[in-house]
């Protein structure tokens, strides 16, 4: 069955449509949704069936996935991260929500999620109301990963209708939140002291 194609407005996402998508997530669905950078592929991190499906869509083994979570706010982070230093907390506080992925030391909850020995986790709090509303209604973070395009010039697809045509038989929902960006998040490795930018993306970090 083809995925549902659901239009949401970033300024004011329709709560009924958000709940419709959350119900699908809770049932093990995989969705494609907008962020403040590229479109993401995501699922409920508490649903093992959904994680397996996301990895199948991505073409990787569950134990090999680089884990990044979309969180509602900073209060979620301590559930998955250990030894969050004061400088790292201040750095994140200054820059979130925003187009950044912070790589942090994972606590014991993270390996259980994918049944793998993961020592780090990426944390995202995007500056986009759609994923934040989804996480808030879901009650826990989304596992998130990028969707890639086969086109070498446009690395990340940006048109939700084109994304739908490519993924409609692979995922359960594609959210049309308008054109996306083709520049991913800036990635900051906070397992080192001082923190190190490991990928230059859309965001310019405020130190």
From TrEMBL:
E.C. numbers: 2.7.7.87
Gene Ontology MF annotations: double-stranded RNA binding; L-threonylcarbamoyladenylate synthase
PANTHER family per UniProt: DHBP SYNTHASE RIBB-LIKE ALPHA/BETA DOMAIN-CONTAINING PROTEIN, THREONYLCARBAMOYL-AMP SYNTHASE
Segments forming domain YrdC-like: 15-203
Enzyme class: transferase
Protein name (database record): L-threonylcarbamoyladenylate synthase
Signal peptide: none
Pfam families assigned to the protein according to its UniProt record, in alphabetical order: Sua5_yciO_yrdC
Record-linked InterPro entries: DHBP_synth_RibB-like_a/b_dom (IPR017945), Sua5-like_dom (IPR006070), SUA5_domain (IPR052532)
Keyword list, A-Z: Nucleotidyltransferase, Transferase
Lineage: Bacteria, Pseudomonadati, Bacteroidota, Cytophagia, Cytophagales
């Amino acid at each position: 069955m083809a995925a549902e194609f659901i239009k949401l407005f970033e300024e004011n996402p329709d709560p009924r449509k958000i709940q419709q998508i959350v119900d699908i997530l809770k049932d093990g669905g995989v969705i494609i949704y907008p962020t403040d950078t590229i479109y993401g592929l995501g699922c409920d991190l508490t649903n093992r069936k959904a994680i397996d499906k996301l990895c199948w869509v991505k073409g990787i083994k569950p134990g090999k996935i680089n884990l990044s979570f979309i969180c509602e706010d900073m209060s979620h982070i301590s559930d998955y991260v250990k030894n969050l230093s004061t400088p790292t907390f201040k750095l994140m506080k200054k820059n979130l929500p925003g187009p950044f992925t912070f790589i942090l030391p994972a606590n014991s909850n993270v390996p259980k999620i994918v049944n793998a020995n993961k020592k780090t986790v990426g944390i995202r709090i995007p500056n986009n109301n759609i994923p934040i509303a989804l996480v808030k209604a879901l009650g826990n973070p989304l596992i998130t990963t990028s969707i890639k395009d086969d086109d070498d010039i446009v690395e990340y697809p940006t048109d939700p209708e084109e994304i739908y045509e490519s993924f409609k038989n692979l995922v359960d929902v594609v959210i049309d939140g308008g054109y996306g960006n083709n520049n991913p998040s800036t990635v900051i490795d906070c397992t080192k002291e001082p923190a190190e930018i490991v990928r230059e993306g859309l965001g310019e970090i405020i130190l």
